[in-house]
């Protein structure tokens, strides 16, 4: 018998060109519509069925869309270092600050209108040059149903930390990290390149944005940059 997740794999693939880029205002609504379509396809399945994994039944429930900031080899199906991954429990884009509003953010004591706190030693940008709130790090252990909004949906398992504090991650069904990366959403973390050095969004070049789907985020003078893949979470393991 075909599993419900095999059925999902038979759905019409969403090509890279069909996937709307993450954009503010009206075009961002297209991305939400894209995610809503994925939800419509999967909701009935997720609400009533179970997925056999590791000799047991892994049940998933739908919730509000969340986003994972992930690090790793795009071609890998498993790895270590998930203690460095993070979770945005809601879309950080609409809660972001434009680069040309950075001075106003400073004058507000680093408190954004959405009430998140900016850290000048550890800050994030998204593909349109919006300063984002940081994700919650580390990503909690558990099972996440993830997709890149293209053609692959997979179960991501984050294991508890071992004695050295390392957390393993793995994707099922042979899916790679690239397969479940939402290419239109780009993100990077910026920290001072030297101890005590300055790393400021004021040095970011607005002309470097937007970033093409799958492209690297731009460098910023005085900063060390770390690019992250963005995964869309459309279901959470029940009991995790």
Overall shape: it is globular
The number of helical runs is: 3
Share of helix among residues?
10-25%
Low-confidence stretches: 1-21, 36-41, 43-56
Strand content: 25-35%
Order of helices and strands: HHEEEEEHEEEEEEE
Give the integer mean of the pLDDT values. 84
Radius of gyration: 18 Å
Distance between the termini: 27 Å
Which structural class do the helices and strands define? alpha+beta
Tally of distinct domains? 1
Query: How many extended strands?
Result: 12
- Sheet with the most strands? 12 strands, antiparallel
Notes on the protein architecture:
- The chain is an alpha+beta fold and 240 residues long.
- Helix content is 15%, strand content 26%.
- It is built from three helices and twelve strands.
- The protein has helices at 4-9, 25-48, 102-107, and strands spanning 50-53, 56-61, 66-70, 78-79, 86-88, 123-126, 131-132, 142-147, 153-158, 169-171, 187-192, 223-237.
- Strands 1, 2, 3, 4, 5, 6, 7, 8, 9, 10, 11 and 12 form a twelve-stranded antiparallel β-sheet that branches.
- The longest helix is centred in the first third of the chain and has 24 residues, at 25-48.
- The two termini are 27 Å apart.
């Amino acid at each position: 018998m075909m599993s419900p997740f095999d059925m999902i794999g038979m759905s019409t693939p969403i090509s890279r060109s069909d996937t709307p880029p993450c954009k503010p205002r009206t075009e961002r609504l297209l991305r939400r519509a894209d995610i809503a379509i994925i939800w419509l396809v999967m909701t009935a399945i997720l609400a009533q069925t179970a997925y056999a994994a590791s000799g047991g039944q892994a049940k998933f429930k739908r919730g509000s869309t969340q986003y994972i900031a992930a690090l790793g080899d795009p071609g890998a199906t498993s790895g270590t270092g998930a203690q460095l991954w993070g979770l945005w429990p809601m879309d950080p884009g609409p809660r972001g600050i434009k680069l040309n509003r950075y001075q106003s953010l400073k004058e507000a004591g680093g408190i954004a209108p959405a009430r998140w706190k900016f850290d000048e030693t550890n800050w994030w940008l998204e593909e349109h040059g919006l300063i984002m709130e940081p994700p919650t790090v580390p990503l909690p252990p558990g099972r996440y149903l993830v997709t890149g909004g293209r053609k692959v949906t997979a179960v991501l398992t984050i294991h508890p930390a071992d004695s050295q504090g390392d957390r393993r991650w793995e994707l099922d069904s042979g899916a790679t990290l690239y397969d479940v990366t939402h290419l239109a959403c780009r993100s990077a973390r910026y920290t001072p390149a030297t101890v005590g050095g300055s790393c400021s969004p004021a040095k970011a070049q607005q002309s470097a944005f937007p970033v093409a789907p799958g492209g690297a985020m731009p460098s910023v003078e005085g900063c060390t940059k770390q690019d992250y893949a963005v995964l869309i979470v459309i279901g959470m393991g029940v009991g995790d």
